[in-house]
Amino acid sequence: xxxxxxxxxxxxxxxxPTMSVIAHENPHIKVTxxxxxxxxxxxxxxxxxxxxxxxxxxxDVIVHKARGRNLFFSTDIDQAIDxxxxxxxxxxxxTKTYGAGKGxxxxxxxxxxxxxxxxxxxxxxxxxVEKSTLPVKTAEAxxxxxxxxxxxxxxxxxxxxxxxxxxxAVQDLIDPDRVLIGGAExxxxxxxxxxxxxxxxxxVPEHKIxxxxxxxxxLSKLTANAFLAQRVSSINALTELCEATGANITEVAxxxxxxxxxxxxxxxxxxxxxxxxxxxxxxNLVYICKSLGFHQAADYWEQVILINNHQRTRFANQIVKALxxxxxxxxxxxxxxxxxxxxxxxxxxxxxxxxxxxxxxxAHIQVYDxxxxxxxxxxxxxxxxxxxxxxxxxxxxxxxxxxxAAVGAHALxxxxxxxxxxxxxxxxxxxxMSKPAFIFDGRNLLNRSAxxxxxxxxxGVGQ
Length: 463
Ligand code: NAD
Ligand code: UDX
What we know:
Strand content: 5-15%
Bound molecules: nicotinamide-adenine-dinucleotide, uridine-5'-diphosphate-xylopyranose
Shape: globular
Helix content: 40-55%
Number of strands: 14
Strand order of the largest sheet: 3-2-1-4-5-6-7-8
Oligomer: single chain
């Protein structure tokens, strides 16, 4: 079977870039990305490519080439489902905020809605692909819904989790470390795996396409994220010790990472990991372990989250302590709000937690981020603990010019590792700040001695 028409439900950070690359590399396949959010779809269809809803380096070029040729963004979900031979489910699976498993389990309501809609609308056989990150065994529930509420047609379920990282999504999609496809251990399951593998084989070398059963594929995604986050928490768990002893975390990370068994990547000490995946997926893993009675394994993975929470709190406390125990009515500049560089995504960014803590101490926060809008920052703070808007508008100001954000500040905090921060005129920034001027570098981005020679008091992470 050769697929001619694909539908992807969910035009977010995964659905948008993933389908753009699949369409770009397979001009013979019509790819329609649908979403309930009509504003988002309108942005994907915008003639002005700087208005795409997601900022990812290189994405505009890919969208420009494929959109209108074989890549379409639409709100007509039913039509796209019915027309497609293969349907990717790429909707959000956030942590539950209610009921059983609140604060830990994945909220699968959007997944179930998709399954029910696919079942209702479909009039021909379909391959349904889980692209969202899901708890192990979710394919069983999806199959159950499809088979029991559908129109008697055949649905084959595949798991094809996405491993792209934001900020490098296009590069990760074009040259992935691997593509993982899980399917049922039946003849039709294996055939479906091969059909999807053929789509990827248009540009991914076959040896990078891993084929497994459904449950291995679902579980591998959760655990890959847990391993990555664990590395960040492992290095961050050493930062206090470095600060107390005179060891330098960058030197330690370099020494550790030189061991080829460990490797140098993902050992950058930081103010704490953010993003929509790490915390959510580990909490989900912990919940699954707990539900099955595997309490030791659950506790083990939960520590990765606890260290991350500790790192954010510790950083905020360090700032207050250094500023003579009070930040009330002081101005504090934030450089960066996104959870990492080269993205406009702010989900779970350390910035939100640290700003909130400092606002509780009545500090005035002045933020500059190259890609995050003022509206997004306000909304992030409002969402946290259902914070009142009045408090945020009193304590938060946002700037489109970094130099303006620093004026009058007692301290400047680097939250995101945007490359442009390294190129700034730091003498000019120093001149406009209140003295003594402090820098808290949550990414160890700046050159310490150069910054100190200007007159700043510099604090990095773990050094
Ligand atoms: P997102 O919130 O950016 O996008 C999800 C989209 O789905 C939203 O636009 C929403 O409106 C839409 N949606 C929800 N329910 C719908 C429905 N019933 N019909 C149509 N549209 C619907 O989320 P995301 O970051 O793209 O993540 C999607 C999934 O991919 C999650 O499971 C996530 O864990 C996983 N994932 C994310 C990343 C990442 O870097 N963001 C990487 C790998 C995997
Ligand atoms: C992650 C996974 O990397 C990706 O494979 C998966 O598909 C989705 O989740 P993402 O969250 O987009 O991707 O970015 P990632 O590069 O993993 O960074 C996550 C967080 O960890 C960021 O806040 C980043 O700044 C932080 N981090 C990363 C560190 O603090 N130190 C590091 O050494 C690496």
